[in-house]
Design brief:
Layout (H helix, E strand, L loop, with lengths): L20 H12 L18 E3 H17 L1 H6 L7 H15 L2 E3 L2
Parallel strand pairs: 1-2
Length: about 110
């Protein structure tokens, strides 16, 4: 079963092992203490193997949005033509919604 995506953009990178995706995934793993090198990112539900808190998720979104806002190559990867913080944050939120770890609400 293929997961439905709600992202409005179509990233230009073809694989999970290219920039900026490699940096994004490495940071996601670091946040939850997961080993980046032991996760099979081509598996269908790889993002369900770890959990983060709502605060960790929000901090990650802020970090990712900041990188998208500041780095032209990242904006290009997410097909953003203008340098706007609000759009960068929306991309980060959409990304974590579709590809982020499970969120713990306890």
């Amino acid at each position: 079963m293929k997961m439905q995506t709600f992202l409005k953009y179509k990233p230009q990178f073809a694989t999970w092992d290219k920039e900026p995706m490699r940096t994004i995934l490495f940071k996601m793993c670091k946040v939850v203490g997961a080993n980046y090198y032991k996760i099979n990112f081509s598996a269908e539900r790889w993002f369900m193997k770890h959990t983060w808190t709502k605060e960790q998720e929000k901090d990650f979104q802020i970090w990712m949005a900041d990188r998208i806002y500041k780095l032209p190559d990242w904006r290009k990867s997410f097909q953003l033509t203008k340098k706007r913080k609000k759009e960068a944050m929306k991309v980060a939120e959409d990304f974590t919604w579709n590809h982020g770890w499970k969120t713990y609400f306890g």
